[in-house]
Amino acid sequence: MRFAQDTPWLHPVAVVYTTAGFVLLALLLLAGGLHARRSSDSTAAAALAAPVGVLLALGAGAVVKAFVGEVRPCDTLHVTATVLPCDPPTDYAFPSNHSVVAAALAIALLVVHRRLGWTAVPFALLLGASRVYVGAHYPHDVVVGLLVGAACALAVGSAARTWGGPAVRRLRRGPLGRLLGPGPATAAAAEAGCTATSTTAPADTPADSLIGGSHG
Questions:
Q1: Distance from first CA to last CA of the chain, Å, rounded?
Q2: What residues contact residue 209 under an 8 Å CB cut-off, 6+ apart?
Q3: How much is the pTM?
Q4: d(C-alpha 203, C-alpha 127), whole Å
Q5: CA angle 134-92-135, nearest 5°?
Q6: 3-10 — which CB contacts under 8 Å span 24+ positions?
Q7: Using an 8 Å Cβ cutoff, are 96 and 141 in contact?
Q8: In this predicted model, what pLDDT tens digit does every residue of 129-164 receive, in sequence order?
Q9: How far apart, in whole angstroms, are the C-alpha atoms of residue 46 and residue 40?
Q10: Are 92 and 70 in contact (CB under 8 A)?
């Protein structure tokens, strides 16, 4: 908290990011979901399961929060000069819900698309750190929140990747096929067909048509 008090120039950035950082992570997850439409059935299954992992993580965090009942540092330490106003005493601190959701989003994306997932991980960690900076949590609230979110998202995403492929394959053949995307084989076949059509030379034009017909 002393660091936050010594860096007032950073307060506006921290407030915006700690409040809206989820938007960036959600957009990255959306990009991963769009990529999954042209990916394998197992990858698409992991993308579909991502919201389930996030909700499971949020529920697990809420259970732990209610069981532990840790009062926030701004109340316990009687610090009034926090970056954000202190939440009500009944809104417990352990674990950090923001950290739970941030980690769940990042790890769910990591299961779907490795490169985008590793891009999201630092943003999730930064979101967790911002909760300590603004005075809403102790560091251990954030660490445990990140672990809970990551564990739930990894469990759900891995299970969907392992066992969800056949279900997605069947759904892609039905009315939901347009929503779920064609998958890699169909997409590659469609691209190959378009390429073949565009590179095929037109048939030779008869000579008499070029000269306006034969002369008698």
A1: 101
A2: none
A3: 0.76
A4: 62
A5: 10
A6: 3/133, 4/82, 4/83, 4/133, 4/134, 4/135, 5/81, 10/133
A7: yes
A8: 888 887 778 889 999 999 999 999 999 999 998 888
A9: 10
A10: yes
